[in-house]
């Protein structure tokens, strides 16, 4: 019998109709759509259960008037791909059988399963049982995803951004407060992919989330958390797949204004030095956003337009013990989309938007008593970011069985930050064991960047009997340019020696010294990646489907000289799975999958490692400090040259024996459609980071190799390397590189074995059990809920590092020196063992609804970071080889030690559970022919809970003295705030 789809959205539909539509949208079958288009597939049979071939399936887009037609195979199956999302009328016809027709059937980006039963007209008694069924379970897919439209998000208290929407799905946790984002399936926040209409819109340089978007232009968001097909690559986490709005035959216009008033925002809590919680009201800001849009048909049924203008602005101030800042920003975004249905078999669409922003801040430095004169000239910082984004897509239906799509796109992001006081050096004072800024300087330096992504891909779909083949090719080029110049003489840091010979200097305990760091960069580098993929969806029989796929890719990175220093080929990634329809009626499935995923070397690494950078440290005795904070320098104690301004040799930057960073995923799951209103599922997940790529300094191992191979050379000591001697490698693997050891102008091939290097293998393991259910408590009350148990442990979080707030993909302090990894194995920062989520919509009346979003999560692991003792762990080996332990003397309190005692990562328990409830109130006023008004209020953290999200894990200062704030809460959940909006559609 026919199951009502309940998912269409019409301009005059009530809130009740919208909420009812959420059920299918939140539990849609998952069919991959790398082009941002939708698909439909299904099975047609007679009431006697016989497969029907040559049945004509006709679908018509109710908004655009587009018609697509296909016929069923001998087994009664059919499929149509490359469809614009939206509501369709589906008609099923065959001579001698009753016609089945359904209106307002919503097809979203995850696809639709539509099955129909046709009655033989010769048997009148069976005509009444003919009809269609829309399944919530796709028995051909092993992919785990969730789709929700923006209209329905408007009925939930959820921020419109990729991270907040992804957090609705099981298996996702929020990133660290220092850089945000979302971790999917145990990955770090820099390991996900973000797509819009088939274009990769992941942040170009660091991959930490997507670029800034005009969210009013987004129609649907799909969050893919596992079992990803071979069409997707360049990530080892999850995928957020977005589809924009587009025009229909009927012209429509509208506008919305949204404000976030300071008066309805609670102050942030914080812990003072006495351990007491107080409320901080030192930050003050207001934001507003306007959206104006129009859409319609330039040529009816043929050429469609959607346009959006989205200005945003904000201003505010912040007050601290050391400075007072006033700031303001503006972002005037626009978005446009054209869709041209050339014919029934050919279509072209084009999208473009600009997300450019400008901002300005004025900063006044306070004196030691916390006073400042606002009449003084402030340090002014001006900035910009953003750029133009666009793509063009073609879809062609070459036959009923063969479809082709092609896309070319371009993403640009440009920043420029001339900041503060270019004539004044940055000065930080650490002589008392904690950092204090001295002087009136504002900003550390001037910087500018320009990053571009150029993408093209082509995909083919071919149906042959029981097999549906999908194959294609995709290419990306990333162009990264970067410039930085420090202010004044450079950066000054002041220290007081805690012991004789501190930091390896000829200095006595209690004496003071200054580190003048002069550094900058100017570079242009490039990343290239290519991939081909193939997948076969094979219907072995009526109940068993096999998904057999593979992706082959290659990645390369260049230095600032244009030479390749990373060139990884033959990355073969199998993606295979099965589904089994246990009941044989499409109401349940048992499924499993295995997939391998490769992660490119981040373009951020090009900037940090392979560019024309200079980084020089001049260390002086500190004779005194002037009133303006500048130093009185004495004897120069040492000069450390980390980078001399030349581009490093490409053959020295990457281990010749290194291979790609990759992760393996194994999933087993079960889904059950309980009845027309309820569905539930369980999924067991294992994800293992099998290999990472890290920047290491292998000076200890290199010097051991030199001593062994040049033992009789009288110039042996001249050949030894000191300090930072970097390369990229897989930790735990031998390193082979070309290096001129003896300085005779000829490079030798040097192989340093893993035992000499002293690094452990990189490890990250994630296990999870996910349980989810969704359905209707009553006809007016829909809910979705999930519980996830997970465990994430190892010695690396991945491309970024949360426990020291290092948003520096591919270039964190992990594995810099072997001693930094001592005691580094344990529960990782993203290990939230228990996660409970629930959200839903209750229709009080047809025009008034209440939406909620509740979550509760267990605490995060706690660690201790202190100074590495000389007589423990790898420092003993380091000192025996080089006479110095760099992880101690250069990095200070960055090791897993507490007051000299080894303290394993994450071994100090966890923070407390955190609970949160958000509410949404929506009221609509139908003005009939004059349009539609919608009033909305989102209240986030209704009860103003102050759960602890993180604690100060610095057990010691770099000087070795104890940190009195160790263990104090330093990050809380966001306090209560309110967003108000008024929307008008006509």
UniProtKB/TrEMBL annotation:
Subcellular location: Cell outer membrane
Keyword Signal tagged: yes
Topological category with respect to the lipid bilayer: Multi-pass membrane protein
Xref: InterPro entries: Beta-barrel_TonB_sf, CarboxyPept-like_regulatory, Oar-like_b-barrel, Plug_dom, Plug_dom_sf, TonB-dep_rcpt-like, TonB_rcpt_CS
Signal sequence interval, chain numbering: 1-33
Start and end residues of each TonB-dependent receptor plug domain: 140-239
PROSITE patterns according to UniProt: TONB_DEPENDENT_REC_2
UniProt entry keywords in alphabetical sequence: Cell outer membrane, Membrane, Receptor, Signal, TonB box, Transmembrane, Transmembrane beta strand, Transport
Protein name, as recorded: TonB-dependent receptor
